[in-house]
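Customer ticket, subject: "Can you confirm the structure for Tripartite tricarboxylate transporter family receptor?"

Message body: Hello, I'm evaluating your service for our small team and ran a test protein. I'd like someone to confirm that this is what the system normally returns, since I don't have a reference to compare against.
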Amino acid sequence: MTGTDFVHVPYPDLPTVVEEGYPDLVTDMWFGLAVPKGTPKDVIQKLQADISEALNEPAFKEKYAKLGMNMVGSTPEDMQTVVDKAAARWKQVIEEGNISIE
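Agent reply: Thanks for trying us out. I re-ran your input and got the following:
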């Protein structure tokens, strides 16, 4: 899946950031559920199964598709990969941009 799989464009004549010449200025938005460290694996598996079931309900998928969102249930390991990649990417942006909190 890529970000372009589910992009809703309310202004079709408005050029995208990529079309304006900034191909690296692209980001995804994602949501995830986190649990406290040490949560029993069986509890995590139950949460994951229940959330995936809800995300695959046709009414749920349809509602969020109208908002331009592609809801995907994944495994805890897949979510950790998403979090790790996002952290590494934004760490690089912060370091290269010499960004600091004031």
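A couple of notes from the result: The longest helix spans residues 76-96. Residues 3-96 form one domain. Feel free to reply with more questions.
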